[in-house]
Write a structure and sequence with these properties.
By secondary structure, the chain is an all-alpha fold. Helices cover about 50% and strands about 0% of the residues. It has helices at about 5-20, 40-50, 60-70, 75-80, 100-115, 120-125, 135-150, 170-180, 205-215, 225-235, 245-250; strands spanning about 95, 100. It has a two-stranded antiparallel sheet with strand order 1-2. α1 crosses α11 and α2 runs antiparallel to α8 (about 170-180).
Length: about 260
């Protein structure tokens, strides 16, 4: 990509990111759920659960986030500590293929983490996650160990991806965007164990297709390698905050007919 084309693309993405990254974005997005809380532990638990079921139609995702919060009596930490999740019938459907048995799997693991650390943030600090070249994947590797320990050694890919060499880790990267980015608009910025510059783009089908249409990437697979390549390019545009462009790549083409004459040649 020529320098002028790169600068034109960056200006376009900056405009789109600023347009989408606004308080009006919150009401129709799962980020609204962790934002309802003020205690760090509540925010973390809800961010993880909301991100875990963040696939499919946004309205259904939001409806089912409300369902989970209702089950927890809107008191996530207290509910976690009580162990009342064990009384849920395994076959209770919470979101598409995510059932109460999956919810219980995750809650047992989180209880394991919280019993030894004040928060998931403290867990990340204790394990020096921020020193790793790919903090998100390291965090999931460590969390996976805790969840397995709390569940008799079994894994559950509906809660956390298990193929860490290949997974794009979209849901966790989104949750980390909520927890780490700190511009005071949509994302909450309640963590400093990881810097915004260390985040990776939450790559889904739409974001990947938009990035390809704009010439940012050429790989067809929406996998870890593509996440690393795309985020590296976005870091060239904004080194301190590359995933701000998640808003642009998500927003382009979603209920919007805006076309940049500088980009679509």
């Amino acid at each position: 990509m020529e320098k002028d084309e790169f600068e034109s693309l960056r200006e376009f993405l900056d405009r789109e990111a600023a347009r989408i990254n606004s308080t009006s974005f919150i009401d129709n997005d799962p980020v609204q759920f962790p934002r309802r809380f003020s205690a760090l532990q509540d925010i973390e638990i809800v961010a993880l659960l909301a991100a875990t079921i963040a696939w499919g139609k946004r309205k259904m995702i939001c409806d089912n986030c409300n369902k989970m919060l209702s089950i927890m009596d809107n008191s996530p930490v207290a509910y976690l500590a009580s162990g009342d999740y064990e009384t849920l019938p395994d076959e209770l459907n919470l979101h598409r293929t995510f059932f109460a048995r999956d919810f219980k799997y995750m809650m047992r693991g989180l209880r394991n983490i919280y019993s030894h650390h004040g928060s998931l943030h403290d867990f990340a600090i204790a394990h020096h996650v921020g020193d790793h070249p790919t903090p998100a994947w390291k965090l999931v590797e460590l969390m996976q160990q805790e969840l397995m320990e709390a569940n008799g050694g079994s894994t559950n890919s509906r809660c956390l991806p298990t193929k860490l060499n290949n997974t794009a880790l979209k849901r966790i990267n989104m949750a980390l965007r909520w927890l780490v980015r700190d511009d005071g608009i949509v994302d909450m910025g309640v963590w400093n164990a990881i810097k915004p510059s260390q985040l990776f783009i939450p790559l889904d089908v739409h974001v990947g297709n938009t990035a390809r249409a704009l010439g940012l990437i050429t790989r067809k697979a929406n996998d870890k390698k593509t996440v690393l390549e795309l985020t590296d390019i976005l870091r060239q545009m904004r080194p301190s905050d590359p995933v701000v462009y998640d808003y642009a790549l998500f927003g382009i083409g979603i209920g919007d007919k805006y076309v940049s004459p500088n980009i679509n040649k």
